[in-house]
Amino acid sequence: MKREENKKAFLAAFPHTIPVLTGFSMLGIAFGILMRTSGYGTALTVAMSLLVFAGSLQYVALTLLTSAFNPLYAFTLTLLVNARHLFYGLSLLEKFKDTSPYKPYLIFGLCDETFSILCAAEIPQDVEKKRFMFFVTLLNHSYWVIGSVTGSLIGQWIHFNTHGLDFVLTALFTVIFVNQWDQRKNRLPALTGLVVTSLSLLIFGAEQFILPAMGLLLLVLALIKKPLEKEPLP
User: Fold this and answer.
1) Which pLDDT score is estimated for 224?
2) Is 172 within a domain?
C-alpha cells in the first residue's frame, strides 16, 4: 500500500520539477567544475550539495574557502544571503502541519524553486499531500547533487579553460531580474536594489560591498514596506 502511494506521489510530483531539473543540472555542473578547478575533490562537492544545499551560497562559499578564514564574515554573509528562507518558512507553517515523518526533511530541503512549486501546485485528490511535498523536495535536491557530482567528474577528466564559468550564477540572477522587471508593475524594489548595490560598490569597493549592500537593502525595503504591499498581483 505504501509503495503504491509513494508511486502515485512521485508521478504527480515529477512533472512539476522538470524545469528545476534543467536549471539545477546546469548550475550544479558549473558548481562541480569550479570546485574541481579550485582544488576540491568530488567527496567535498557531494558533501556540500547534500548537506548544505544552498545554490547561491555554495558559489559564495568557493570564495570563502579560497580566502582568509573569517568566521564572523562567513556567518553574517550566510545569514543575509539566505534570510529569505525565514519568510518562506513562516508562510509554509500551515502547509507543513501534519507532515511527519517528512517534516524535518521538508524544512531542510526548502529552496526557492521548491517553495514556488509547493505554493502553486494543485495536488491531485488521490495523492497524499505530505508525500507529494516530500517527493518535490527530494527530486529537486537530487537534481542539484547529481549535477554537482557530474560537474566534479567532468572537471577531473576533461581539462579546459573555466575562466568566466563562475558568471553562470550572475547570469541566472540577471535573467530572474529581467523576468521580474517585465512582470511587476511596481518596479520600486528593483530600482532600490540597483541604486543601493551601486552605491555600496562605489563606497566599499568590489571586495567588501556585499554585506553593507544587503544590510542596507533590508533596511530600505522595511521602510518602504507599505507602498510595496499596495502593488496589485501580476
Assistant:
1) 73
2) no
